Amino acid sequence: MPIHPSKKRNGTAVNIDKPHTPTPLASWDEPTEMATVVPGGAMPRQVNGVACDNAWLPALERADWEAQTESMVFEEPPFEETGKAPAAGAVVVEPDGRLWLVSPTNGFGGHTTTFPKGKAKGMSLKATALKEVCEEAGLEVELFQHLVDVTKTTSRTRYYLARRTGGNPANMCWETQAVHLVPLEKASEMLDQKVDHKVVDALCEKWGEWVWWFSYPELHTPAWASAALGAAPARRQHWAHLPLPVRRARIPLDIRLDRAEAGALKARHGREMVRLLRERHPV
Predict the structure, then answer these.
(1) Residues 34 and 162 in one domain
(2) In the chain, N or C terminus with fewer CB closer than 10 Å?
(3) What is the pTM of this model?
(4) Does 107 share its domain with 231?
(5) What is the 3 state secondary structure string of 113-127?
């Protein structure tokens, strides 16, 4: 019976009753495959261009986690108080369309696989999400959007959308015995509780929004406006190369435009896009 390389805060060792099997390193480069790493396991040097370094955030204080959230500014709805403990987590998405899931050690909480999350315990929801993702999945992330709030037996959890900026999933804490990178269309198969399916439903509904975020990261900073108003040309790297959303419909379309009509459509669409972006991301 393997022992988790990470111990509890009181120094107690944790046995893993039914350990996972890691996938080959090549699986991390295949957008259609699930990839799995176990505690202390091997990882490629990078995934989707972001390094999987061994830097581990030490036991940061509350103020340190709160400080990290200061640059993560975006609109989110008021958190509804239901009498249950406030909690937060994050759905960390990759530009190849996959997302990160964790398997709690020995099925803690009745979960085989779930999203990293935890109760706030006096911290802000954003700081809680950062802390839980770092500890349970070994990832350093940036929160960029509210996703959904779900009510559970003892807590009400706010989930954020996040992108990975660093860390190493092999450095998961003792609470996790495996970290997975899973294609969106396969996530529901791995999540064994209905409350987590609600999170996947919300992720599917907002698919276009997080694809847009990855496709045009420069538009999510105050500098986007100067580029937009300068009529910067679209380039190859601006187009998303991602799998189709899980939920989609076939729409027959047969429209033919002459050169003048096509030019007018492009000009109108461009002005409308700038207007919408300026409303969503005011400088």
Answers:
(1) yes
(2) N
(3) 0.76
(4) no
(5) CECCEEECCCCCHHH
